[in-house]
Write a structure and sequence with these properties.
The strands form 4 sheets. Strands 5, 7, 8, 10, 12, 13 and 14 form a 7-stranded antiparallel β-sheet that branches. The protein has a 3-stranded antiparallel β-sheet with strand order 1-2-9. It is elongated. Helix 8 crosses helix 9, helix 12 crosses helix 14 and helix 12 packs parallel to helix 15. The chain contains 15 helices and 15 strands. Strand 3 and strand 4 form a beta hairpin. The protein is of the alpha+beta class.
Length: about 450
Amino acid sequence: MAIRYDDMHEITGALMIAVLEELTVAGQAPVFAEYVGQDGWSRSSQETLMVIRRQRWRHPMALSSPYWWEQLPQMRAFRTVLASHPELSSRVDTLIGFDFSAQRRDLQQLLIVDLLTPLVEAARDYVFDRTVFDVAYERVEAGLLAENVRWSQIVPLLGFDMAQRLQVDLGDGLVIRLMTDVELSAAVQAGLPDQASFGTLSREVSRLYQCAVIKVTTYPIRAGETVDHVVRPASIADDASRVQIALRLVCGGSVTTGRLLEMQHPDDFPATHGYSVSRSWSDAPDLDRPTLLLDPVQVTAVQRMMVMLADPAITGNRPLQLAIRRLMWGGSRDQPEDRLIDLTIAAEALFIHGKGSGGKGGKSAPIAAGAEALLAGDHELGVPAAEISSFVTHAYKRRNHEVHADPGTFWPLNLLDGSQAPDLRSMVNDLERLICRAVALTIHRSATSLQLSP
C-alpha cells in the first residue's frame, strides 16, 4: 500500500530523527535484552513448538515523559500536521477497536512502539534508516486508516486430524483448519489436556491437537467512547459442539473440543491485544482412537450432518438428543466398561424411549429388534440382520454383567460380524460403530430441512 499523506510522512520522519539525536546526545547507547516469554511459540517441526526468543530494546526512562516529547519543536509541528488530518488524529489518544471490545490507543506509545523501536532494533543504534522508517510508517498509516477489524473465535479440536491439512467450509463463516502458530500458542497457554512433554523453551504438541473450528468475523472499527448498547458476537461454542457430533457420526473416533478462544486477528493493526479464553471443562480424547477426516466424501457428509443437527426436528427430539449426548460422553472415555455403559444407554434412548415406550421389562430384546429393523441391509455396516440382533443382545447382556457385577453367566465377547472378540475394547469399538450409524440414520430420517439419502 502506497503512502497517502506525504506531509505526515515527512514530519514523522523529522520527529524520529530528532528523537534519535536527543537519545544520542544523552550519551547512553541503546541496551538490548533477550526476552523469552510464554506469549509466543513457533513450530520447529510438525509436533515441536519452540518458544520465540526476542531481542528487545529497553526504552530509556525519558521516553515515558510527555514533557520530554512536547519540548521537541518537531513534536509540536507533528501535532499540527496530524490535526489537519482528522481521519488520522481521530484514531489516536482515544478508545479504538470493536463496539464490544476496545482499548485506548495512546499516541506517545504508538510513536515509541511502532515507529521508534523498529528503527533502533534494526540499526542496533540510534541511527535513522530511511528504508526501515518507510516500512514502519506505511504500516502505521495503513493501520490508522483501516476501516475494518477482524475478530477470531477458535475452538481446538482434540484427537483429530485431516488429510492434506484441508480447510473445510461449514457455512456461515465457520471452518475447520490447521491453527496458525499464533492461534496454537494461545491454545497451548489456555491449556491442552493430556500433553505429556513440555518445558520452558519447547513443547511437544501432537498433530492431533493442532486443528480447530474457527470463525473470523469482520466489523467496522469504532473510535471514541462506547456505544449505548453493546452486542457481543454470538459464541461458536454450540457450533463447535455440532462439529464434534458430526465428525464422530461420520468419521468415528474420540474427537473432543478444547476451550473457546477469542482474539483480534493477529494480522490486523493492533487495536486490542492478547486473547480471552472460556474456562469451561475440556475433556481429553482417547488418542488411540483419533477422528480422521480423510476424503471429500466424508467432508460432504460432515457438512450435511451439520445442517441436519440444527434442524428443529432433531434439536426437539429428546430421546435422540439423549442418545447423542451419551454417544459423545462414551466416545471419549478410555475405559471400555464405561464406554459400554454409555453406549447401551444411547441404545435404550434410540430403540426404546425413542419409540414412546417406557422400557418396562427386559430391554435387550426390544433394543436388538430396533437395531435390526433400522440397520438391516445398511450399506455402510454391511452386516446381516441376524448378526446385528445377536451382537446387540450379547452387548447388552455384557453391560448387565458390568453394571450389576453379576458373578453368574459371563457373556462371551463377540464382534459385529459374529466372530469372537479378542477383548472387551474390540467389542465396544464395534458397538460404537453400530450406535454411530444408528444415530446418523435416525437423524437423516427425522430431519425436515434436508431430505437427503444417508
